[in-house]
Amino acid sequence: MTITTGHTNLTGTYTIDPVHTQIGFTARHAMVTKVRGAFDDFDGTVVFDAADPAATAVTVTIRAAGINTRNDQRDEHLRSDDFLAVEAHPQITFASTAFRMTGEASFDLTGDLTIKGVTNTITIPFTFEGASADPFGNTRLGFEGSVAINRKDYGVTWNAALETGGFLVSDKIVLEFEVSAIKNA
């Protein structure tokens, strides 16, 4: 299914459905395994025009204190000044600046990602998973994407050296997005 051809009915403003959306991340731990987590508290909007996809605009606000790795002690450490400093920087934000179709069902979304008060431009490749009407009469769009960032680029620099060499937490963090958005009435 293409996101543009024959789908002018998809044009509109959508609200990201937090109940059916996952904003997650993966980081390598102790150089031997991956730790996965998610942000449980966020909201966002998507403005899409099938006739002019380049005009697409996406904004997302994540409340950083909602980080969840299924380990309370680790989550508290991630909320601390060592990592996200949620008291001083309660929000992680993304605001798109460009949208480019890369295939019939794929696109790149470029925008400004702000973490811990530091803003960098990133490009996230996405796949359009489809559109449908849900049982409540809502039009839904689904898309998935991921991008690797370097946490040090955002001032998240804490680490601990390992006796065997290397570090406890990888610099590379993979951000993962599984999004369901509902068209506003």
From TrEMBL:
Domain of life: Bacteria
Domain Lipid/polyisoprenoid-binding YceI-like as annotated: residue spans: 13-182
Record InterPro entries: Lipid/polyisoprenoid-bd_YceI (IPR007372), TTHA0802/YceI-like_sf (IPR036761)
Pfam families membership: YceI
Family: Belongs to the UPF0312 family.
Protein name: Polyisoprenoid-binding protein
Species: Planomonospora sphaerica
